[in-house]
Specification:
Blueprint (H helix, E strand, L loop, with lengths): L6 H6 L7 E4 L3 E5 L7 E7 L6 H4 L3 H17 L7 E4 L14 E6 L9
Antiparallel strand pairs: 1-2, 2-3, 3-5, 4-5
The structure holds adenosine monophosphate.
């Protein structure tokens, strides 16, 4: 994909508005436009990676993303009672936006992931 066509690259570039909750030189975190829980934040790398498989090839970027997930959880006040972090990858996951993002979900009991 041409990164200029990437929705989340366009959010990074400021071309599409987002409710930003955390930002560093390497990452951006913003509220999901269709929240599935009282807290639903997307944490992305500013650099374009298609998915978590691509991100794994860049340990510094992967580390920055994970650190941002932790900062968002602290800032949202959900370290207790807890939160869920999801990386969708590929069509069976339902992934809609091919720019790596961690979903941080919290604010209610989230139930079992499967079962
Ligand atoms: P995924 O299905 O893992 O690719 O998740 C993509 C997420 O991006 C979905 O939860 C969408 O609701 C969310 N989303 C799509 N467009 C926007 C946007 N403009 N601002 C914030 N979140 C968005």
């Amino acid at each position: 994909m041409n990164v200029t066509d990437c929705l989340f690259c366009r959010i990074v570039a400021g071309e599409i508005p987002a409710t930003v909750v955390y930002e560093t030189d390497a990452v951006l975190a913003f509220r999901d436009i269709r929240p599935k829980a009282p807290v639903h934040v997307l944490v992305i790398t500013k650099q374009h990676f298609d998915d978590v498989l691509a991100l794994a090839s860049d340990p510094a970027a992967a580390s920055a993303l994970l650190a941002a997930v932790a900062e968002v959880a602290r800032a949202e006040g959900v370290v207790e009672p807890g939160f869920r972090t999801i990386f969708n990858t590929g069509p069976d996951s339902g992934m809609e936006v091919p720019h790596v993002h961690a979903h941080v979900l919290a604010g209610r009991p989230l139930g079992a992931l499967a079962g």
